[in-house]
Each structure stands twice: as C-alpha cells, then as structure tokens.
Amino acid sequence: MFQTKGRLIRSAAIATGVLVASALSLSGCSAPAQPSDGGSATSGSIQWWSWTPDNDLAQREIAEFNKEFPDIKVTFKKVPNADYTGVLRPALASNDGPDVFTVAASGAVGPVSVFAPYAQDLTPAITEKLGDDWKSQVAPTMADAFTVQGKLAAFPWAKQGAGNMWINKDLFDRYGLSAPTTLDEWVKVCETFRANGHGCFKEGVGGSGFDVDTLHSIANSVEPGSFTAAARGEKKWTDPALVEAWEIFKELSQNGILDEGAVGVQQYPDVNNAFLTGKVPMVQMGYWYSQYATVNSLTAALAGAGVPSDTPKITIVPVPFPDVAGKGNPSTVFSDPDAAQAVNIKSKSRNAATTFALWLGASKAGQQAVANNVDSIPTLNGVEAAWDTIELVNPQVQTPLLKDLAKKTQEATEPRQLSLSAVHIQGVIDANQAVLTGQRSPSQAAEDMQRVADANPVSK
Fold it and tell me: Which SUPFAM superfamilies does the UniProt entry name for this protein (predicted)?
C-alpha cells in the first residue's frame, strides 16, 4: 500500500507528540454519548477512513460488500499513514467524523489505545454474529490486540508480516543472477547491477520507519530473537548482538549494497516507484507487497507513478533476507495484528457501520475479499487467497512463492512491532540514521537507543 503499505510511521517525532498528547487527553475521558439509535443496519451511507488498503483494493472490497448489502453506500477516504493520527483525532472529536475508521494494534498510525474512547464496543454485535465462542474463530492474539479495558474497540480484519525481501526477477534473470543468500553474494550481485547502470538495494531510511524491519532482519541473522527481546525490555539495546546488527547495517552502505542517499528518500513513493518501474532490482517490503504481483494492482501502481502506459510489468517475487551475519541462522518472517475496523460511537449510522465492519472482518465473504487482494492476511480462521482466480503477472513463477510467503506470515509468531511504542520506533529510526550518516558509531547508537528505552519502559 505499511502501509503504506508498510503501516509504520513517517515523522515519528511529530507523530509521537500527537500520540502522547492524545493519550494524555483521552486517558481520563468517558465515551461520548450516542446521538441516536444508530439507524438501519442494512441501509444508509457511511464514511470509512483508513490508511490502508490502496484505493483500488478498497473499492474491490466495497463492491463485494454491496453484493450482500446493496443499500449501504460506503465511501472510502484514504489518509496517508504519516497524517492519519493527526487527521483522525479532531474528526472524531467533532460531530462530522467517519462512521467507520481503521485502527492499528500498536505503533503511531491510529493505535487502538488512543482511539478506543471514540469507538463502540463491538462485543455484543460479534457475539450475536458468531456466537459466544467467537474468539476461537479468529487468529490468536487478534481479539486481545484490539480490546482496551475489556472493550472490543475494533474488529480485526488484517494480519501483516515483514522480514522478507522482494526482487525484480526479470532483472536478475537478464544478468544470470540468483537472489543473494549471504553478505558476500549480495555485494557481488550489486556490483553486477551497478556495472550495468542500475541501483541495487534501495531503501528510505528514517522517514517511514521501514528500516526498522531491516535492522530487525539483520539482528535475527546475528542472533534470532535478539531484536524482539530488546523491544520487550528483556535485553538491553547495548547487547553485543544488537551492536553487531548496527555494524552490519552500516556495512550495507559502505560496501555498495544500499543505494546512496537512503536517509534522504522515502519508501513511498520514492523506493516503491523506483522498484515497480524497473529502476532498482531489490527492496525490503513485507507481505503487503504481494499485491503488486497482480496485474490489476501493478497497473494501478504504474499509473499512479506517472509512467507511460506501455511500461513493462515486472515479475516481483519474495525471497528470504540474506544471512548477512554469516552464522547460518535462517531468515524469518515476523508479523503483527495489523488493522481493525472501529465504529464511531457518535455516528448516526452506527448500525450500518457495524454491519460493514463485521462483514469485512468476521464474514467469510469479507475475509475472502481481503485475502484475494493479497495485501494482507485474513484473520478469520479457514480463509486464504483463492490463488487460481487471481491474475498474476507471471503465475508460474510467482504463485508458489506467494503461497509460501502467505503461509509463513499466517503462521509467524514473532512480533513485528507490537512491543514497540511510537517513541521506541523513533529511537530505532534515529539510531539507524545516525549510524548511516556517521554521526554515531554503532555502539553509541545502541547507547542512545537504550536511553530511550530506559526513559520509556515497556509495559509488562
């Protein structure tokens, strides 16, 4: 779309301030009064605000919803993830906010902890729809991730994962190259691409926080679980494994793997457009990037990038993150509860909004629409993408690899950023930037990050 397809943060320094102010102001608030009986559950007009999915995917989901509920008109408003929290809060405080709004389990983009006071408790509605055992019908941790002080503030509809890389297989094949599995192989692959006028591994380091995933992957190569342990407060950020991870991160820049100017570019649109238009052969994105293996989404993305309509559609495939530490530790996918639908407690169309929210997350038809968009993993048990109906750019090559990534993401138990608050994410971003620009050594950056952690202890 991360969000965004990456669904992380951009100006986290600003976003963190917004979150802190929001949390302080909301911590003692009572729920706003309901203005009406909520209207019809099967007709009306509702506004859905979110940072995800992309517009074309949202319209597909709405179209499927309208096959069952033709009298509910859903208008989708996509807000950039960097702006979402700041835009959503005043809208919900007014009487003109969205009827349905997406929240995240953690981080700085629409965290449920901040917006729960504005949300209707969906427990009665989901119990009526799925029965008293409804929690057993969704993926583990999903319901708890969006429950605040006993209130189901939003119903989950998407799980997201990261930790893998994506390559332009057409470019790799042109030069007879294979996806690198070690640091040395990665260096040699990049030498070939650069000798032929291409970039290599392009990433926006800082602005959107996608580099947090990169450091996480590097740390797992050094010592599996070390990043998660630090995020949970079980290990110091100054631990040798984390310092080594920052050393390797710096080495990616020094040995010609990471394209120049990483601190000055954005993952979206800069990196995204460069990769999808064939200018660079390799990026780190998560499962959400599967959507660009499809003809429809890649066509829409190229149109959005402003390139000629006859620009060739590339074959993108997921590959494991290389064993950059050389210790034989396997590449892993880490995942989180990603997105859930909340219903504005002040909405005059609460019942129609609830119908839509629960259709998207708690019905097989809604979750099938999510699955078939291949940008998120559905959270309702037993639903997966119908791969034989999805038009891929190169199905023979892409289908088995996308299926494998979906399976790994669905089964992954290592958290992506669930244990990281917005201020912690910003701390990692600051450390990454400081290391790459030479302002701080890896050990100094680790010390800086530990000071952030000490000042903002993880809730146990």
Answer: Periplasmic binding protein-like II (SSF53850)
Say how far apart CA 283 and CA 166 lie, in whole Å.
5
Which pair of tokens denotes residue 294? 């499809």
Which amino acid type is present at position 459?
Answer: S
Name the H helices within 232-276.
240-254, 272-276
Of all residues in the chain, the percent with pLDDT exceeding 90 is 82
Are the CB atoms for 430 and 246 separated by under 8 Å? Answer: no
Say which CATH topology domain 12-160+337-385 has. D-Maltodextrin-Binding Protein; domain 2 (3.40.190)
Average pLDDT of the chain to the nearest whole number: 91
Tokens at 409, concatenated: 């993401």
For residue 322, which phi and psi values (nearest 5 degrees)?
Answer: -60, 155
Residue 265, pLDDT above cutoff 50: yes
Q: What is the pLDDT of residue 394?
A: 97
DSSP structure class, residue 51:
S
Q: Which two tokens stand for residue 212?
A: 């947090």
Equal CATH topology for 12-160+337-385 and 164-332+416-455: yes
* For residues 285-307, average pLDDT: 94
What pLDDT digit, counting tens, does each position of 430-445 carry?
999 999 999 999 999 9
Confidence of residue 22 (pLDDT cuts 50, 70, 90): very low
The residue ranges of every structural domain in the chain are 12-160+337-385, 164-332+416-455
- CATH fold, domain 164-332+416-455, is D-Maltodextrin-Binding Protein; domain 2 (3.40.190)
Burial of 278 (0-12, 13-18, 19+ CB in 10 A): middle
Rounded CA-CA distance 32/171 in Å is 55
What pLDDT, on the 0 to 100 scale, is given for residue 29?
46
The pTM score is 0.88
Given a contact cutoff of 8 angstroms between Cβ atoms, the answer to whether 103 and 339 are in contact is yes
Q: Determine the Cα–Cα distance for residues 241 and 224; give it in Å rounded to an integer.
A: 9
Which residues, listed in sequence order, are joined to residue 103 by a DSSP beta bridge?
A: 340
Task: Name which of 375, 433, 395 is nearest 157 in CA terms.
Answer: 375
The string of pLDDT tens digits covering residues 319-356 is 999 999 999 999 999 999 989 999 999 999 999 999 99
| Cα–Cα distance for residue pair 105/116, rounded to 1 Å | 11
Which two tokens mark 237?
């950020």
Rounded Cα distance between 219 and 228, Å, is 9
**Residue 13 token pair:** 């320094």
Q: What are the Cα distances from residue 155, in Å, to 47, 142, 357?
A: 17, 8, 7
pLDDT band at 398 (very low <50, low <70, confident <90, very high): very high
Q: In 10 A of CB 404, how many CB atoms?
A: 12
* Angstrom distance (rounded) from CA 320 to CA 392: 21
